[in-house]
Amino acid sequence: MHTIQLGIQEEQYNYIQKSGIDIQSKFNEFLTGLIIDKYPPITTCEAKERVKKAVEDYKANGDNYQEIDSNYWNKLRNKISNHKAN
């Protein structure tokens, strides 16, 4: 096992201590996310903003989107199912 040193602002550290957040498990989730999909995790607020923007874009340009064929959806479902199984 290796040790990683984190630089945390005093206010953030105090909040973490008071809230009872399990830093080790949260850090493990973060690392797992990086390893699995190669993308850093995003906050809930950022995710909501991305979805909001995508919906607005779709509403503004709905006629310009092409429907995805069912063969693609089947391949995607199989890939997700296989990933969950592993």
Distance between the termini: 24 Å
Structural class: mainly alpha
* Helical residue percent band: 55-70%
Mean pLDDT: 84
Instruction: Please report which band the strand proportion falls in: under 5%, 5-15%, 15-25%, 25-35%, 35-45% or over 45%.
Output: under 5%
Tally of alpha and pi helices:
4
Number of DSSP strand runs:
0
Topology:
Elements: H1 10-19, H2 23-37, H3 44-61, H4 70-85
Task: Explain what this protein looks like in three dimensions.
- With 86 residues, the protein is mainly α.
- It has one domain.
- It is 69% helix and 0% strand.
- The longest helix is centred in the middle third of the chain and has 18 residues, at 44-61.
- It starts with 9 loop residues before the first helix and ends with a helix.
- The relative contact order is 0.05.
Using brief descriptors, characterize the structure shown:
69% helix, flat, 86 residues, mainly alpha
Write a concise synopsis of the structure shown.
It contains 4 helices and no strands. With 86 residues, it is mainly α.
